[in-house]
Amino acid sequence: MPAPDTVPGARYSAGGWTDLLGNLWLFGGFATNGFLNDLWKYSNGQWTWVSGAISAYQPGVYGTLGVSSASNVPGSRQTAMTWTDPSGNFWLFGGNGIDSTNGMGLLSDLWKYSNGEWTWMSGTKLMNQNGVYGTQGTLGPGDIPGARAQVCRWVDANGNLWLFGGFGVPASGTEGNMNDLWMYMP
Question: Is residue 48 classed exposed, middle or buried when 0-12, 13-18 and 19+ CB atoms within 10 A define those classes?
Fold first, then answer.
């Protein structure tokens, strides 16, 4: 049961979702004390702290790729890309934040939040990684967008995620503004 005075601290560039019941969810962002990885739910006029740490600059706990766990949690970050799939699962990609080794930089990890647990779905545990570009227009299981933040994203009528550009690390490895287009089928 949430306490009536429990609220997330002030922040900017947080990620967010709306669940299938219309509740607001908030993840991470940047506060005066640094990058955050706390997950909050706002429902019926009250906030509930759901997961993550109350202190800043937390590394990601990745666990096993594709396996959900109560101990998994994305690292602290801001300007990550978020979306909700048609089944109501929350998705989180990249951003600027903390990797698994406490390194700070651009991230390329993909996470799913479902049934109260995080699952690391794709990407790397390390910051500032180059993209892995396969054959243009062809789905490839090894293809991974490079580390990035501040992307444009949308979900199509089939529930596929599309992302365009952002500031990041393309295949060349030189940080900058990007203009690549990716599709992810959950």
Answer: middle
